[in-house]
């Protein structure tokens, strides 16, 4: 799933809210001031001014608000709300990661998933 996070001004955040008003959903997560759900994209506006676009249409929707992400090599992608960079050889490394959903989301209070992918299985995971 593609995630794009933009840091927007208060005026731009209001513009996002107006644009997606008809697709608004209720999210009671801490820090969330607005959320919308399209068929292929979830949009979340936070008190901090960060706006996260998640899903297959994230690039398209973020580009509406100046979020055309500069192209980066496959081994050095911009990730996370902090703009962290992956190491140059990330696609050849064994990796462990986790994510969570919760506080009123579909799965209930809190659901956490973690995965470990050894470098020998990267090709299989990519194929899947």
In short:
The protein is of the alpha+beta class. It has helices at residues 10-19, 58-63, 122-127, and strands at residues 3-7, 24-25, 32-37, 42-46, 50-54, 78-79, 84-85, 95-105, 108-117.
Can you tell me about this structure?
By secondary structure, the protein is an alpha+beta fold. The chain has three helices and nine strands, in the order βαββββαββββα. The strands form three sheets. Strands 1-5-4-3-2 form a five-stranded antiparallel beta sheet. The chain starts with a strand and ends with a helix. Residues 69-82 have low confidence and may be disordered.
Which tags fit this structure?
alpha+beta, two-stranded antiparallel sheet, TATA-Binding Protein, single chain
Average pLDDT metric: 81
Q: Alpha-carbon distance between the termini?
A: 13 Å
Largest sheet data: 5 strands, antiparallel
Level-2 CATH architecture of the largest domain? 2-Layer Sandwich
Q: Considering DSSP H and I runs of 4 or more, what fraction of the residues is helical?
A: 10-25%
Shape: globular
Summed up, the domain count is 2
- Secondary-structure element sequence? EHEEEEHEEEEH
> Rounded to an integer, what's the Rg over CA atoms?
16 Å
Please outline the helices and strands.
Blueprint: E1 3-7, H1 10-19, E2 24-25, E3 32-37, E4 42-46, E5 50-54, H2 58-63, E6 78-79, E7 84-85, E8 95-105, E9 108-117, H3 122-127
Antiparallel strand pairs: 1-5, 2-3, 3-4, 4-5, 6-7, 8-9
